[in-house]
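Can anyone check this?
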Amino acid sequence: MAKASMDYELAALKLFSAQLRGAKQEPHVNALCLFGIRFQRAWLQGVLVSASDQGRFLLDDSSDVVELTVPPLLAQSQWKAGQYVMVVGPYTPSKSGDEFPSVQAQKMVDLSSHPDRESMWYLEVVEAHKLFYLHNLT
């Protein structure tokens, strides 16, 4: 996805990381399409499996791994491997099948102190899929 302005009228899709690989670039617009829905931002939750001082992280939600780019303001927090986090930000597909998909974090929240969040996340994604995404496929 080319670097351009963010359209906040487009929803941030609640997804499992593996679903991101099915997103297709929309021609002539700064958006991707998945399940017939245009989007720019993804909403993910998972475990940080690696963290670096340079603002690059890997997030694993047990369906796939996504590379996170965290801007300096968010990187000031004490992010470390093993934390369960929520991330929302623009999604960039991998250029080849060998690279991780990438999300630039606009919002990142540590949910580690809420152990039920992970199991609830699976239900939230399934519910969003049934209520919104499947509806657009018919």
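Reply from J.R.: I decoded it. The mean pLDDT is 87.
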